[in-house]
């Protein structure tokens, strides 16, 4: 091969690199065999407190759910795993149809008209929703209202994304509830966003909200848990314009926070404004139904500096995962799993509320997460729970100073009655 | 032959996964909270498995054959990477576990930060960005914050060569800057004269891909870096093409201030049909305080030889902030870690050498059949023109579609924009000579067909699951869901 190219050594191919900097020393370890690497990584993996060994009552944006066996087998197929973005549709119909079906199922769950092929995660989906709302406001409306009961990390990501743009963020600095947020609406407001169920697990009454937001000429954006939508009223029924959220509960493993799935769905009028890939149905030259990425002129590779987002990839494999999960669970399984979460969380909340010194916030209905006021600092409680193989809820006081000594507990279908009872017993012991 | 939609399979009442009976007392659910209907498939497990298996067979993939898709680095994705990411201790680790309960994951991330920094000569690395485009965005936000932090508010422009990836100008706009495009000179390099004229105190920085998107290493890279530094700007390197540089040159040593890596390209984490990616950023001294967070640091040094240090998540002091929830795409970090550990120092160097050798071999073998603008030693990829003198109406697209008939994935089409009918070819190091020769012979055969029977190209592909698609129809008569969504409130 070298002779064909006309050089003597491979090194000759790098003459354009400044000789002063060419071929530096590379201080990396010596190569290891697959066997050695497997042993090393297995040891690292086992050094973690994971759900294989612990009862998990921690949520706050990432949830431990059952993943049917068939799912892993399908997603691991090299035909899905090692394909690129379906820019050549003739030989990518598998990926394209799977995305189309994913979009369809997300529309069903959210009650929206259209969904894109996904964003990086729930937080970045919200940041992209802000961009759409600002565009829908034709650049004249430069204020957005965020509920303080939206995941604090999501609100942080919105700030990161929009730090280079002129944007006023209102609503989330204090303890505003829905009616306080409505008070902040004005003719400068591009959107109002609330989380459903909110970060504290509560299901706020959103029935009249859309009307008020629309009266001010703004968009209503809901940040939702898709698994809760197996049971709860759909965002479409509530009048939302854009629905975003974290798709991780739909069959995606916890994986220390990623890769996850940011879903994005909206009403028809905003389809041409949304960022990211979208798959549509069409025909091939022989009249057969086929799928293709569509509305491409919105995207960065064509529109370049006029594009509203630089997003290039989608979470392809994760949207496939969600599509398979939603297919396996289906209409009935989604309802059942959501009900299991609901009942188990309510059982746990009731049992914990009976403990001396622990108080569950029952001021609003909740789904599968709830707030407990604790008699001791949450960090102390969690340290004691870890010793019993239990991962307790997060300490809300870190992000919400007024919620010092409040724990956010998540319960899913994975928590058996025995696990819940063990949690209750362990909490009881901490005050004895 | 087409596969029905999942919604059109199955029958009422079916469910593909089983769930346990509720083992706690039932709590009544307020009816006003409950949704009216839920239109999801009703299919058995076997139906789901067959449906998606049949869909998978409609895809081309690296596991199936040669995938010379320029700028995408479609190398083999070792299977062990997948097993490592699926270890229970990683896959079932909650992201909000306390640092003490995540020492294994943190140790892995810390080590990966160090390795990536070493490979490209940077001071520090953050694994936070979820993809290359997010890494770019992080880089430009860091440049922005660096200038603002010094009280320098005049800098509004970012310079970009006209051969850049589309994400570069889009990123610049997102960060609130104006993109200024620079022309290429006759040699395919950045036009130094135009660059020097553009450099003034309104320039925040420059984004450049090395090797550039023609596959060429800039002949005057140090002059480019110096010109921008001299006017007070910072240098951003798009690291999409790192597969051409490992063990050859370290961007940090060339003077670059920030760069993103594409773990799904250079470090073999799979592309997954379009993602997830992972786009860590590396920075020089000046930008370390601005890194997106959190990053992994050592909170307590190891005391003895046996003891491991204690790792913690920390937010850099002047961080541009969080880019996503949690800490980047950890599952991709595990795969990249596995890849680097198995390859080691020698293997990482060999990757680049073989990738560059393979690209040059194809380039030389095709240079008499296809026009290759800027025909000189290339990096890991090169660009040729997909049209022929004397043959009307044959385009890069036709050659691409015809390649499908021969069992190859086409190269990247129509990019970079500065080459007419561009076909960008990147073979990667994974392929052996016989695969490359097979591709070269096919490209020559297609060139002959273009002259003898051009309709064969225009009507291709002939053997793919579907023929060419009506993309105009897709955009005009928008059908984005299996079924129309029923009116709400029913």
Q: Characterize the largest beta sheet of chain A: strand count, sense, and whether it forms a barrel.
A: 7 strands, mixed
Number of helices of chain A: 13
SS-derived structural category of chain B: alpha/beta
Query: Which protein chains make the most extensive interface, counting residues with beta carbons within 8 Å of the other chain's beta carbons?
Result: A-B, 197 and 196 residues
Could you say which overall geometry of chain A the principal axes of the C-alpha atoms support? globular
Low-confidence stretches of chain A: none
Distance between the termini of chain B: 36 Å
CATH topology term of the largest domain in chain A: Aspartate Aminotransferase, domain 2
Strands of the widest sheet of chain B, in order across it, are 1-7-6-5-4-2-3
Total domain modules of chain A? 2
- From the 3D structure, determine the CATH topology of the largest domain in chain B: Aspartate Aminotransferase, domain 2
In this structure, how is the largest beta sheet of chain B organized?
7 strands, mixed
**Quick one: CATH superfamily of the largest domain in chain B?**
Type I PLP-dependent aspartate aminotransferase-like (Major domain)
Q: What is the mean predicted local confidence, pLDDT of chain A?
A: 96
Amount of helix of chain A: 25-40%
Beta-strand portion of chain B reads 5-15%
Question: Which sequence of SSEs, written as H and E, runs from N to C of chain B?
Answer: HHHHEHEHEHEHEHEEEEHEHEEHHH
Give your account of this protein's structure:
Chain A has 432 residues and is an alpha/beta fold. Chain A has two domains: 55-67 and 330-430, Aspartate Aminotransferase, domain 1 (Alpha-Beta Complex), CATH 3.90.1150; 70-325, Aspartate Aminotransferase, domain 2, CATH 3.40.640. Chain A is 35% helix and 14% strand. Chain A has 13 helices and 15 strands. In chain A, the strands form four sheets. Chain A has a seven-stranded mixed β-sheet, with helices on both faces. A four-stranded antiparallel β-sheet of chain A has the order 11-12-15-14, with helices on one face. In chain A, a hairpin with a 5-residue loop joins strand 9 and strand 10. In chain A, helix 3 (69-75) packs antiparallel against helix 11 (316-353), helix 6 (122-136) packs across helix 7 and helix 11 crosses helix 13. The mean pLDDT of chain A is 96. A seven-stranded mixed β-sheet of chain B has the order 1-7-6-5-4-2-3, with helices on both faces. In chain B, strands 10-12-11 form a three-stranded antiparallel β-sheet, covered by helices on one side. A two-stranded antiparallel sheet of chain B has the order 8-9. The longest helix of chain B is centred in the last third of the chain and has 37 residues, at 330-366. Chain B has three domains: 6-56, no CATH class; 80-342, Type I PLP-dependent aspartate aminotransferase-like (Major domain) (Aspartate Aminotransferase, domain 2), CATH 3.40.640.10; 348-474, Alpha-Beta Complex (Aspartate Aminotransferase, domain 1). Helices cover 34% and strands 11% of the residues of chain B. Chain B is α/β, with parallel strands linked by helices and 490 residues long. Chain B is globular and about 80 Å long. Chain B has 14 helices and twelve strands.
């Amino acid at each position: 091969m070298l002779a064909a190219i006309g050089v003597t050594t491979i090194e000759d191919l790098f003459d354009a690199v400044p000789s002063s900097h060419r071929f530096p020393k590379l201080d990396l370890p010596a190569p290891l065999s697959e066997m050695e690497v497997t042993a090393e990584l297995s040891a690292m993996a086992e050094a973690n407190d994971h759900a294989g060994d612990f009862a998990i009552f921690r949520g706050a944006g990432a949830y431990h759910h059952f993943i049917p066996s068939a799912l892993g087998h399908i997603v691991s197929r090299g035909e899905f795993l090692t394909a690129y973005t379906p820019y050549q549709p003739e030989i990518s119909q598998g990926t394209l149809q799977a995305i189309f079906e994913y979009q369809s199922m997300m529309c069903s769950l959210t009650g929206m008209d259209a969904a894109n092929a996904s964003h990086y995660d729930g937080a970045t989906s919200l940041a992209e929703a802000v961009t759409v709302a600002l565009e829908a406001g034709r650049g004249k409306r430069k204020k957005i209202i965020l509920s303080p009961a939206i995941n604090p990390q999501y609100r942080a990501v919105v700030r990161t994304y929009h730090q280079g743009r002129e944007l006023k963020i209102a609503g989330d600095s204090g303890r505003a509830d829905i009616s306080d947020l409505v008070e902040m609406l004005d003719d400068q407001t591009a959107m109002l966003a609330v989380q459903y169920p909110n970060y504290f697990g509560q299901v706020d009454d959103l029935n009249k909200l859309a009307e008020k937001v629309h009266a001010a000429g703004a968009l209503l954006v809901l940040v939702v848990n898709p698994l809760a939508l197996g049971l709860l009223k759909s965002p479409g029924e509530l009048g939302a314009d854009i629905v975003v959220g974290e798709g991780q509960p739909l069959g995606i493993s916890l994986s220390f926070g990623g890769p996850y799935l940011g879903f994005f769905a909206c009403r028809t009028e905003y389809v041409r404004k949304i960022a990211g890939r979208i798959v549509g149905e069409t025909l091939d030259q022989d009249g057969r139904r086929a799928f293709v990425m569509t509305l491409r002129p919105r995207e960065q590779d064509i529109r370049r500096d006029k594009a509203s987002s630089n997003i290039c990839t989608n979470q392809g494999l994760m949207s496939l995962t969600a599509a398979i999960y939603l297919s396996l669970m289906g209409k009935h399984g989604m309802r059942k799993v959501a009900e299991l979460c609901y009942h188990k969380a309510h059982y746990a909340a009731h049992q914990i509320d009976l403990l001396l010194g622990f108080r569950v916030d029952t001021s609003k209905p909740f789904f599968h997460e709830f707030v407990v006021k604790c008699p001791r600092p949450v960090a102390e409680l969690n340290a004691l729970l870890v010793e019993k193989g239990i991962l307790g809820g997060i300490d809300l006081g870190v992000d919400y100073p007024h919620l010092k000594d409040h724990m956010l507990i998540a319960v899913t279908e994975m928590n058996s009655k025995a696990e819940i009872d063990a949690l209750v017993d362990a909490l009881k012991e901490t005050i004895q | 032959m087409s596969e029905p939609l999942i919604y059109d399979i199955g029958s009422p009442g079916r469910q593909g996964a089983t769930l346990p009976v509720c083992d706690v007392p039932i709590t009544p659910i307020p009816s006003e909270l409950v949704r009216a209907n839920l239109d999801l498939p009703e299919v058995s497990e076997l139906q789901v498995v067959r449906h998606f298996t049949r869909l998978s067979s409609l895809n081309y993939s690296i596991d199936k054959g040669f995938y010379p898709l320029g700028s995408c680095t479609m190398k083999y994705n070792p299977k062990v990477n997948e097993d490592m990411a699926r270890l229970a201790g990683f896959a079932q680790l909650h992201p909000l576990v306390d640092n003490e309960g995540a020492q294994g994951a943190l140790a892995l991330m810390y080590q990966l930060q160090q390795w990536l920094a070493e490979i490209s000569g940077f001071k520090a690395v953050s694994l936070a960005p979820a993809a290359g485009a997010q890494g770019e965005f992080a880089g430009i936000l860091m440049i922005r914050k660096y200038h603002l932090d010094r009280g320098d508010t005049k800098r509004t422009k970012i310079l970009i060569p006209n051969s850049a990836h589309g994400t570069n100008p889009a990123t610049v706009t997102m960060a609130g800057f104006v993109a200024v495009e620079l022309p290429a000179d006759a040699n395919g390099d950045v036009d130094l004269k135009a660059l020097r004229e553009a450099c003034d105190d309104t320039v925040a920085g420059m984004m450049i891909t090395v090797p550039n998107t023609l596959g060429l290493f800039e002949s005057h890279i140090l002059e480019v870096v110096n010109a921008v530094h001299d006017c007070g700007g910072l240098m951003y390197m798009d690291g999409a093409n790192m597969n051409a540089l490992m063990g050859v040159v370290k961007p940090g040593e060339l003077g670059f201030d920030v760069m993103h890596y594409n773990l799904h390209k250079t470090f073999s984490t799979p592309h997954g049909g379009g993602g997830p990616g992972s786009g860590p950023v590396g920075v020089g001294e000046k930008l370390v305080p601005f890194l997106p967070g959190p990053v992994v640091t050592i909170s307590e040094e190891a005391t003895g030889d046996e003891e491991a240090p204690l790792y913690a998540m920390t937010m850099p002091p002047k961080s541009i902030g969080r880019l996503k929830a949690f800490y980047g795409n950890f599952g991709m970090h595990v795969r990249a870690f596995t890849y680097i550990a198995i390859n080691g120092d020698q293997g990482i160097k060999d990757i680049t050498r073989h990738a560059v050798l393979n690209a040059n071999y194809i380039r030389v073998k095709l240079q008499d059949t296809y026009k290759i603008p800027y025909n000189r030693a290339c990096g890991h990829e090169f660009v040729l023109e997909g049209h022929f003198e004397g043959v009307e109406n044959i385009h890069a697209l036709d050659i691409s579609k015809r390649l499908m008939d021969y069992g190859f994935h086409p190269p990247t089409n129509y990019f970079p924009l500065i080459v007419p009918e561009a076909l960008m070819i990147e073979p990667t190091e994974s392929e052996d000579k016989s695969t490359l020769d097979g591709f070269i012979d096919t490209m020559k055969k297609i060139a002959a067909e273009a002259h003898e029977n051009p309709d064969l190209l225009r009507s291709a592909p002939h053997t793919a699951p579907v023929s060419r698609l009506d993309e105009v129809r897709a955009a005009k008569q928008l059908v984005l869901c299996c079924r129309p969504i029923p009116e709400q409130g029913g």
